[in-house]
């Protein structure tokens, strides 16, 4: 496919939400019923956000936890992976979720976070991916997306925000190097798993396991770009094992994509991108860094996808892997249209569509049922319940738009109808 084809018009097919609720378990449906009630109106959602921190953990676990979190332990997340695979979602982007950014007290140590993150590669993503390959059969091996381990820089070192803010200053350089070394240790697990699995399955065209660097609030991002660039240079000589993130709501994002392209060309390595719109709009103190309007963000995001796919399909690509991480129906429809035109199986295997667990389930359903999407994953946070509660609150605050787009009365009614169908 040429870049001209990538830039050509997309089809007008509209996503149909269909009966995506029928694919969920009764307890997940119950959780969505609760979300529907919390999102009946903006004031009700604001009230839910306000009382959320005071809601006892047992109640959260009973009501909505399973909808958004993979579990407390690796065996729990393994079961979540099985549940997702029954819906046609064959892999996960797992994130041991701890919000350690500003040096606040955590319920686990940094060493535990690092060890659990490594174990999530060896004891979770590798066996799950192998299981999925066995399920689809080796002839369809490239229809199993990679398993991703998310590296959230602010969760991997004490006092992370300060280190990231001052990473160029001599007093902080050793700590920044320590953060880099920690990431290297975790990615080395992915690299050796990929090497072993490739011997077993030589027809595979994408990494089996990728490490993905999450994007943070804007003032920390310059350091995160540097970190992900150093990791590309170290690990991505052959393929994009390391995937970075670009937040397309930032005005600097499109020039940044071009700049990173130039660095990769000079450095002789491959880039991997997870393109997101960006989750920190509500807490960003400098509104000037963000696109002026939502439609500017949408246009910038969509052109980021088109340009990245064109790069991947070109004669000398610098981008080796792309994750289209969005709940936006128009964006995912456009990405599917473009993917349909790609004939190179190596490129096809390296483009993955993604949503957060518990969000955009109608989009996920549309992609599976109506667009025959195979390379599709869910971002699955997991870890100590106290910390995942913080994650849930962030999701409610930051993704209020996504929550409301498919919620309120329509969701409550849909849940009741679906539960009724299950019983009778
Ligand atoms: C798999 C996955 C991984 C993710 N990882 C990250 C990550 O590492 N870092 C991160 O920051 N986010 C991450 N996100 C969240 C993401 O950035 C978005 O917040 C979320 O997906 C909602 O955007 P959307 O593309 O689904 O589309 P929509 O719901 O259509 O768009 C909502 C988004 O549009 C933008 N927006 C809204 N109003 C305006 C406005 N007035 N002006 C300009 N822009 C506006 C904001 O970015 C907002 O979040 C991830 C999402 C997914 C699905």
From TrEMBL:
Alphabetical list of InterPro entries matching this protein: FAD-linked_oxidoreductase-like, Proline_DH_dom, Proline_oxidase
Record-listed E.C. numbers: 1.5.5.2
GO CC aspect terms: mitochondrion
Entry keyword annotation includes Flavoprotein: yes
Cofactor: FAD
GO biological process: L-proline catabolic process to L-glutamate
Catalytic activity, as annotated: L-proline + a quinone = (S)-1-pyrroline-5-carboxylate + a quinol + H(+)
Pfam families per UniProt: Pro_dh (PF01619)
Keyword entries, A-Z: FAD, Flavoprotein, Oxidoreductase, Proline metabolism
Example GO molecular function: proline dehydrogenase activity
Gene3D superfamilies per record: 3.20.20.220
Top class in the EC scheme: oxidoreductase
SUPFAM superfamilies: FAD-linked oxidoreductase
Limits of the Proline dehydrogenase domain: 140-402
Family the entry assigns: Belongs to the proline oxidase family.
Role played: Converts proline to delta-1-pyrroline-5-carboxylate.
Protein name stated in the entry: Proline dehydrogenase
Organism: Dekkera bruxellensis (Brettanomyces custersii)
């Amino acid at each position: 496919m040429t870049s001209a084809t990538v830039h050509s018009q997309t089809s007008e097919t509209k996503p149909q939400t269909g009966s995506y609720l029928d694919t969920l378990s009764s307890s997940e449906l119950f959780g969505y019923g609760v979300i529907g009630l919390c999102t009946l109106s903006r004031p009700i959602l604001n009230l839910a956000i306000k009382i959320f921190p005071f809601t006892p953990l047992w109640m959260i676990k009973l009501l909505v936890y399973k909808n958004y979190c993979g579990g407390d332990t690796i065996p729990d997340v393994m079961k979540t992976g099985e549940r997702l695979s029954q819906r046609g979602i064959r892999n996960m982007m797992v994130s041991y979720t701890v919000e350690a950014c500003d040096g606040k007290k955590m319920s686990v140590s940094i060493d535990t976070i690092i060890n659990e993150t490594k174990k999530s590669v060896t004891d979770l993503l590798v066996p799950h991916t192998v299981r999925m390959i066995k399920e689809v059969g080796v002839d369809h091996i490239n229809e199993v997306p990679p398993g991703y381990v998310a590296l959230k820089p602010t969760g991997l070192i004490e006092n992370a925000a300060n280190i990231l803010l001052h990473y160029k200053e001599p007093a902080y350089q050793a700590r920044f190097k320590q953060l880099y070394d920690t990431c290297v240790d975790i990615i080395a697990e992915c690299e050796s798993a990929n090497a072993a699995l490739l011997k077993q399955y030589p027809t595979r065209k994408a990494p089996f396991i990728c490490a993905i660097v999450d994007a943070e609030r804007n003032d920390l991002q310059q350091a995160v770009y540097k970190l992900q660039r150093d990791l590309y240079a170290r690990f991505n000589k052959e393929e994009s094992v390391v995937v970075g993130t670009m937040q397309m709501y930032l005005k600097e994002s499109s020039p940044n994509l071009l700049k990173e392209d130039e660095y990769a060309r000079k450095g002789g390595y491959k880039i991997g991108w997870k393109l997101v719109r960006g989750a920190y709009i509500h807490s960003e103190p400098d509104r000037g860094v963000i696109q002026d309007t939502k439609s500017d963000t949408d246009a910038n995001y969509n052109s980021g996808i088109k340009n990245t796919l064109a790069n991947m399909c070109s004669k000398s690509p610098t981008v080796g892997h792309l994750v289209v991480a969005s709940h936006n129906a128009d964006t995912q429809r456009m990405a599917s249209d473009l993917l349909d035109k790609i004939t190179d199986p190596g490129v096809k295997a390296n483009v993955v569509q993604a949503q957060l667990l518990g969000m955009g389930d109608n989009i996920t359903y549309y992609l599976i049922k109506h667009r025959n999407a195979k390379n599709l994953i869910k971002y699955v946070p997991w870890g100590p319940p106290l910390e995942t509660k913080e994650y849930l609150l962030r999701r409610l605050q930051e993704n209020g738009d996504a929550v409301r787009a498919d919620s309120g009365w329509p969701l409550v009614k849909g849940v009741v109808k679906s539960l009724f169908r299950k019983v009778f």
